[in-house]
Design a protein that fits this description.
Elements: H1 2-7, H2 21-32, E1 43-48, H3 51-58, E2 73-79, H4 87-104, E3 108-113, H5 125-133, E4 140-148
Helix pairs in contact: 2-4
The structure holds flavin mononucleotide.
Length: about 170
């Protein structure tokens, strides 16, 4: 597990290669087993493989999201605030599990923040995505995860360089 965590890095360049359906299903199974507050599972996932839609997703935040256009797939993570007051945490856990499972399967991934972010035109990124993906109004989009076979090398984390000063024992 520690080795998986050490070698996971954000990947923003992907090969043209498609991701096998079997791997996509494993990814999604992992996500669906995510823990959630009161086991409410207040999330919905939209899996996008269509190039044109990936292209539209990529435009939501300029450079911060542009690499979605080159991804083999994107998973949009949304939550229902009516279903849980901690939907943000629950969605974040799902997204993190997606990223770790992706790395385990030899895929690269990167989180693209949606909640609280604006489009280059100044609108809410969530509203733009609701339009593009026909998401019902009551949901809020937390993030999107871009995925695919990595086309870039990423240096693993160095265990000696971790911020050990952020760890406190017994009190701050
Ligand atoms: C909540 C969150 C939001 C992020 N938003 C973006 C984003 O919008 N665009 C992007 O390129 N990377 C985004 N990232 C990826 C971070 O930049 C990246 O995780 C961080 O720089 C650490 O690098 P590493 O993932 O390679 O360890 C986000 C990561 C998190 C956890």
């Amino acid at each position: 597990m520690l080795e998986l965590l050490r070698t996971r890095r954000s990947i923003r360049r992907f090969m043209e290669r498609e991701v096998e359906e079997e791997k996509i299903q494993e990814l999604l199974q992992g996500a669906l087993m995510a823990p959630s507050s009161k086991n409410r599972r207040p999330w919905e996932l939209i899996v996008v493989k269509d190039k044109e839609i990936l292209n539209q997703l990529s435009q939501c935040r300029g450079r911060a999201s542009g690499f979605m256009a080159g991804a083999a797939l994107g998973v949009v993570v949304l939550g229902n605030p009516e279903a849980s007051d901690v939907w943000v945490e629950d969605c974040s856990i799902v997204a993190t599990i997606l990223q770790l499972q992706a790395h385990f399967l030899g895929l690269g991934s990167c989180w693209i923040q949606v909640r609280k972010r604006e489009t280059p035109e100044g609108g809410k990124v969530g509203d733009y995505l609701k339009e593009v993906l026909s998401i019902p109004q009551k949901y809020d989009v937390e993030c999107m995860i871009a995925l695919g076979y990595p086309a870039q090398e990423a240096k693993p984390h160095d265990k000696d360089q971790l911020s050990y000063d952020k760890i406190h024992y017994n009190n701050f």
